[in-house]
Amino acid sequence: MVRLLAIRPSIFKRLTGLEHADVSSMLGQTLKVFDVYEGGLVWVSLIWKRGDGSSEVHAIAVDAEQIELVMKTSEAKG
Fold first, then answer.
1. N or C: which end of the chain has fewer CB within 10 A?
2. Dihedral (CA of 32, 38, 41, 46) sign
3. What CA–CA distances, in Å, run from 47 to 32, 43, 57, 60, 78?
């Protein structure tokens, strides 16, 4: 689990309207890391529930400097 401290401006350039608002709202939130690339990019995502019962997910890759470790989770126990 990490806290998102910053998002690259290049990500925002590709977003419009509701997508931009959704991704902006990720700042400061605690999110689960779902992947880490060899180059150091860390992938996080968040799901938004819409009023019509649907949901939307946005996943973004951020640099390690843009996150703060909140809690390490242990590997699944077998």
1. C
2. negative
3. 11, 14, 4, 12, 28
Q: Which residue has the tokens 């992947």?
A: 35
The predicted-structure confidence for 5-43, as pLDDT tens digits, reads as follows 999 999 999 998 889 999 999 999 999 999 999 888 999
pTM of structure: 0.81
The Cα 41–Cα 36 span in angstroms is 6
* Residue position matching structure tokens 């019509």: 52
Domain-by-domain residue ranges, the chain?
2-69
Residue with tokens 């880490």: 36
